[in-house]
Amino acid sequence: MLKDEKAVVVFSGGQDSTTCLFWALKQFKEVEVVTFDYNQRHSLEIECAKNIANELGVRHHILDMSLLNQLAPNALTRNDIEVKEGEDGELPSTFVPGRNLLFISFAGVLASQVGAKHLVTGVCETDFSGYPDCRDIFIKSLNVTLNLSMDTEFVIHTPLMWLDKAETWQLADELDALEFVREKTLTCYNGIIADGCGECPSCLLRKKGLEKYLSTREAL
Question: According to the lineage, what is the superkingdom (predicted)?
Fold first, then answer.
């Protein structure tokens, strides 16, 4: 039974990872979270993650991943690179090469030290902007690789993998966390908590999903 086991949630303090945290708290006996500091554009992301972990009473690990900033210049690590959608089949400027590969791998190392065999991540192939490291096939491949590399039996959970943003809001609501997620998470590429700037791609996706879910809920 999962209720008797322990999980580590890859946690940014955003909508998706916070929804996954609430999901994990319902599924597992013990939950810890890990946030990665890669000198991202908005250090407020880390403060937001700290505050949420503290409020929910979960142990919070912050790991230094500044090397990723050196390796992968992009709109999330450089102020002089514009946040924009991909054009002509290109990836968005917010894609950080290797991010989920490194984050989940290091989360696995941490999990092995704290006695957890479950890893939870908010990656999603439905509203994923084309990021290759959000695909289900990548997660399954990485799960096998992690288990082989450490001779263990990790299970990577992706509660949002096949949900669009409206369904992610629905899941938060079902977990009695919709208002918490709406008011206390940071998804905005411009570093504004809650509903954000309302203009960046991340805010537009979040807002569209929320409006769709709320209109559906009102119709019931």
Answer: Bacteria
For residues 9 and 32, the answer to whether their CB atoms sit within 8 Å is yes
Structure tokens at 204: 């537009």
E-state strands within 79-202: 118-120, 155-157
Q: Are the CB atoms for 193 and 209 separated by under 8 Å?
A: no
Q: Report which DSSP code applies to 94.
A: T
CA distance 91 to 88: 9
Confidence at residue 86, expressed as pLDDT on a 0 to 100 scale:
47
Domain segments of the chain as ranges = 6-183
Question: According to the annotation, is 18 in a ligand binding site?
Answer: yes
What is the pLDDT confidence band of residue 115, given thresholds at 50, 70 and 90? very high
| Angle in degrees, 0-180, between the axes of helices 99-114 and 136-150, rounded to the nearest 10 | 40
48 is in an annotated binding site: no
Give CA separation, 70 vs 73, 78, 83, 181, in Å.
7, 10, 18, 31
Confidence label for 131 from pLDDT (cuts 50, 70 and 90): confident
**Global model pTM greater than 0.85:** yes
200 is in an annotated binding site: yes
Which architecture characterizes domain 6-183 according to CATH? 3-Layer(aba) Sandwich (3.40)
Q: Can you list the positions of beta strands (E) in 1-147? A: 6-10, 30-37, 59-64, 118-120
